[in-house]
Amino acid sequence: MKYAGFWIRFLAHLIDFALWNAAEFALEWGLTLMLGLGGLGEQVLGVMLSFAIVYVYYVEIPVRTGTTIGKRIFGIRVLDRKTGLSFTRKQAILRTVSYLASYGVVGAGFLMVLFHPQKLGLHDLFAGTGSVRDRKPG
Q1: Quick one: which of 4, 61, 66, 68 is 20 to 30 A from 89 by CA?
Q2: Half-sphere exposure of 7 (CA within 13 A, CB side)
Q3: Closest CA to 89 of 73, 120, 123, 66
Q4: Span of 43-52, 70-79, 80-89, 117-126 with lowest mean pLDDT
């Protein structure tokens, strides 16, 4: 197994971040106009949409496909570290929630990937997952 390193995962994460933020922005903008929301209503809608989109994008899609769109572009799959097979919904949820810890202290949880022998970040350690190069990018 070839582990996916920091920089390729960083680029994949940027693509994923841009995609879910674009989806959230478009939905929030459209629904705000449709429903005539302003101020607090728009903020509440934005938070609810963010949670829903993050859940679908980082939990449901990867559980079904083993990857996100950004990771797929670079040929990266997320696996259960113990079995080497697909990871579970529980692991996907834990991994997603653990991103908050990985972002903490100026992204140190992500920077761990640079130094860990299996290229694991803090979120991987919490969730029992790992990212591997599945195929050539493209």
Answers
A1: 4
A2: 0
A3: 66
A4: 43-52
Over the stretch 106-125, which tens digit does the pLDDT of each residue have? 899 999 999 999 999 999 99
CA quadruple 64, 81, 7, 103: dihedral, nearest 10: 80
Contacts of 110-118 spanning 24+ positions with Cβ under 8 A: 110/6, 110/9, 110/10, 110/13, 111/6, 113/5, 113/6, 113/9, 114/5, 114/6, 118/3, 118/81
Cβ-based neighbour number of residue 102 at 10 Å? 21
